[in-house]
């Protein structure tokens, strides 16, 4: 029960990596606010886990809109009275030939994948600073190191930005007892990768030293470690969880 008495806010929680994080954290004793743009889907997840005896509440949120994120933060504090952990997992991807990306594509993806992480931190960080405690885990991608296998230019740029965001917040918030770290998943079987990964599965596996694709729980296990007190002296890092497909 590594997260007993802790409260976690997880975005992009309805499926894939976010769902795995919610399940892993709840199983380790955390009370979880599971947040997603798809409220019916995240409500179904929360209802199922609550029926199993876990404390999980759903929350609809659009991380690209400050007023929506502010309401998410208020909901967490009203329900639980504290927030100890934030996992910024919400993200979108749009694959096109690079000359077909529009300004609207760029703005939408940066708003969700990068600005969204900033907004979530900004809306919860003062509470964490007052309590002199916090664990923030931002989801990046191995695309920021590799240039992206199939993720597209806006996505890759946003995920590189997440690393800068993580390091800047880590330096700023360290004196307040708040750690800020990132996870960069490699090719992982999720709804986000479903449109393209199955067609490239054999090719991907041939490039992965551990000879398999990632699963959402692989990422959730890393998030659990970074959110726990076992990682209390780790901040500003990017933890690569990619089976070795990108190193260094």
Polypeptide structure, described:
- With 248 residues, this protein is α/β, with parallel strands linked by helices.
- The chain has one domain (7-239): NAD(P)-binding Rossmann-like Domain (Rossmann fold).
- It has 8 helices and 7 strands.
- It has helices at residues 16-27, 39-51, 66-80, 103-131, 143-146, 153-173, 197-207, 216-227; strands spanning 7-10, 31-36, 56-60, 85-88, 134-139, 178-185, 238-241.
- A 7-stranded parallel beta sheet has the order 3-2-1-4-5-6-7, sandwiched between helices.
- Strand 2, helix 2 (39-51) and strand 3 (56-60) form a beta-alpha-beta unit.
- Helix 1 packs across helix 8 (216-227) and helix 4 (103-131) runs parallel beside helix 6.
- The model has no long low-confidence stretch (mean pLDDT 95).
What's the structural blueprint in terms of helices and strands?
Elements: E1 7-10, H1 16-27, E2 31-36, H2 39-51, E3 56-60, H3 66-80, E4 85-88, H4 103-131, E5 134-139, H5 143-146, H6 153-173, E6 178-185, H7 197-207, H8 216-227, E7 238-241
Parallel strand pairs: 1-2, 1-4, 2-3, 4-5, 5-6, 6-7
Helix pairs in contact: 1-8, 3-4, 4-6
């Amino acid at each position: 029960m590594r997260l007993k008495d802790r409260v976690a806010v997880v975005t992009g929680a309805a499926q894939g990596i976010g769902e795995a994080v919610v399940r892993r954290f709840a199983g380790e004793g955390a009370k979880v606010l599971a947040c997603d743009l798809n409220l019916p889907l995240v409500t179904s997840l929360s209802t199922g886990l609550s029926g199993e005896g876990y404390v999980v509440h759903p929350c609809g949120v659009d991380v690209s809109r400050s007023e929506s994120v502010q309401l998410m933060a208020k909901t967490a504090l009203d329900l639980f009275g504290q927030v100890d952990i934030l996992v910024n997992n919400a993200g979108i991807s749009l694959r096109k030939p690079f000359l077909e990306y529009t300004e609207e594509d760029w703005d939408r993806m940066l708003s969700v994948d990068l600005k969204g992480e900033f907004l979530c931190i900004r809306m919860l960080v003062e509470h964490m600073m007052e309590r002199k405690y916090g664990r923030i885990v931002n989801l990046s991608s191995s695309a920021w190191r590799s240039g992206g296998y199939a993720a597209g230019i806006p996505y890759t740029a946003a995920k590189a930005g997440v690393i800068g965001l993580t390091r800047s917040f880590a330096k700023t918030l360290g004196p307040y007892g708040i750690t800020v770290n990132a996870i960069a998943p490699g090719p992982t079987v999720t709804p986000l990768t479903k449109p393209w990964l199955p067609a490239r599965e054999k090719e991907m596996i041939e490039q992965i030293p551990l000879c398999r694709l990632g699963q959402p729980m692989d990422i959730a296990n890393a998030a659990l470690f970074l959110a726990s007190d076992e990682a209390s002296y780790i901040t500003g890092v990017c933890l690569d969880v990619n089976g070795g497909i990108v190193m260094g």
